[in-house]
């Protein structure tokens, strides 16, 4: 209860929303059991005097959420090991029974070679029938147990796949997370360089996102993020990779897509986001429309992942500096002027 009071006290004093994620961060902070978490919180507060929504999300993703995933993987792994141990014990019992049956057959063969009466034959046959019945029962039990084990391991495999998918998904928007993006773009770049197919990258940023949080609170900010995420889901299909890059920034990797096509897709997304009206759920108040700025780059010979992202990011900031709510690519004068001014 003391830890709980400290956690709530921190949330109140820093004027944060009392959502489960923030409570968990401050509860763990109060216990002092996670030294790296406490260290990063203390350093951030000392440097900035506060923790932003992006800070809290990054702290949670880095120091807490992966622990839960690891725990779940460990539990599933323990169940798989337990299942294998049970099957191995049953197989060992079956091997022992098989060895006994083999010994019984060998003994019966020797006895039959020296049999002198019908009664002796009947006794030997009776022993063989009994051993055969026991062997059949053992094999049947082993078969049934293996079938059950196959189903259980299949179920556990599905659990691991679900955990893996969850570890690569941003919980707020349902898009891929940064980890998913990093893996996907690396593979896409390698494939494009190997095949010579075009590859484009779009980087999105929500315009004036901080003002939404400051004016209407973090819950409304979350609603804005979900709105953009929903627009991306509805627009981006097939092999394209959509992810929340971090904070209010999103990214889309477009394999087999040249720059001109990517610009068309980017503007379609920009219009789709702008067409949706934002409403405050608690009051029904209309808060206006959300706009996004977009930067687009295309893979060039000699490029790597970092250079592709760097150019898309530079195009994005050129779009923001030139009025926002627009798409800028590396062929546009805004980007060219931006790079020339940086060189100068």
In short:
With 344 residues, this protein is α+β, with helices and mostly antiparallel strands. It is 69% helix and 11% strand. The chain has eleven helices and seven strands.
Task: Please tell me about this protein's structure.
The protein has 344 residues and is α+β, with helices and mostly antiparallel strands. A 5-stranded mixed β-sheet has the order 2-3-1-6-7, sandwiched between helices. Strands 4-5 form a two-stranded antiparallel sheet. The chain has helices at residues 2-13, 20-31, 35-48, 53-112, 118-167, 178-195, 209-216, 218-235, 259-274, 305-321, 333-343, and strands at 199-206, 241-246, 249-255, 277-279, 286-289, 292-298, 327-329. It is built from 11 helices and 7 strands. The longest helix has 60 residues, at 53-112. The model has no long low-confidence stretch (mean pLDDT 85). Strand 2 (241-246) and strand 3 form a beta hairpin. The two termini are 59 Å apart. Helix 4 (53-112) packs antiparallel against helix 5 (118-167).
- The value of Rg in angstroms is 32 Å
Strand order of the largest sheet: 2-3-1-6-7
Q: What is the element string, with H for helices and E for strands? A: HHHHHHEHHEEHEEEHEH
Instruction: Please give the alpha-carbon distance between the first and last residues.
Output: 59 Å
**β-strand amount:** 5-15%
SSE class? alpha+beta
Anisotropy-based shape: elongated
Uncertain segments are none
Largest sheet: 5 strands, mixed
What is the number of E strands? Answer: 7
What is the helical fraction, as a range of percent? 55-70%
Would you tell me the overall average pLDDT? Answer: 85
Number of helices: 11
């Amino acid at each position: 209860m003391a830890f709980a009071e400290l956690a709530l006290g921190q949330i109140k004093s820093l004027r944060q929303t009392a959502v489960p994620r923030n409570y968990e961060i401050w509860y763990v902070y109060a216990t002092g059991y996670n030294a790296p978490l406490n260290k990063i919180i203390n350093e951030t507060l000392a440097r900035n005097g506060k923790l932003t929504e992006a800070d809290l999300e990054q702290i949670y993703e880095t120091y807490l959420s992966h622990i839960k995933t690891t725990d779940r993987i460990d539990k599933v792994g323990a169940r798989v090991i337990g299942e294998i141990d049970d099957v191995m014990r049953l197989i060992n019992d079956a091997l022992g029974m098989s060895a006994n049956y083999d010994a019984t057959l060998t003994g019966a063969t020797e006895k039959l070679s020296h049999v002198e009466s019908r009664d002796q034959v009947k006794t030997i046959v009776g022993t063989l029938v009994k051993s055969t019945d026991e062997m059949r029962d053992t094999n049947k039990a082993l078969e049934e147990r293996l079938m059950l084990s196959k189903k259980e391991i299949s179920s556990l495999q599905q659990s691991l796949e679900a955990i893996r998918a969850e570890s690569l998904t941003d919980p707020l928007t349902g898009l891929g997370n940064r980890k998913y993006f990093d893996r996907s773009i690396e593979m896409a770049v390698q494939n494009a360089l190997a095949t010579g197919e075009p590859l484009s990258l779009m980087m999105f940023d929500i315009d004036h996102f901080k003002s939404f949080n400051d004016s209407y609170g973090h819950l409304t900010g979350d609603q804005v993020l979900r709105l953009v995420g929903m627009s991306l889901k509805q627009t981006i299909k097939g092999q394209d990779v959509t992810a929340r890059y971090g904070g209010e920034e999103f990214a889309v990797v477009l394999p087999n897509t040249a720059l001109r096509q990517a610009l068309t897709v980017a503007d379609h997304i920009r219009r789709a986001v702008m067409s949706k009206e934002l409403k405050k759920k608690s009051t029904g108040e209309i808060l206006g429309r959300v706009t996004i700025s977009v930067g687009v780059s295309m893979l060039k010979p000699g490029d790597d992942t970092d250079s592709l992202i760097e150019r898309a990011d530079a195009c994005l900031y050129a779009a923001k500096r030139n009025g926002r709510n627009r798409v800028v690519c590396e062929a546009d004068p805004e980007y060219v002027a931006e790079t020339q001014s940086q060189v100068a």
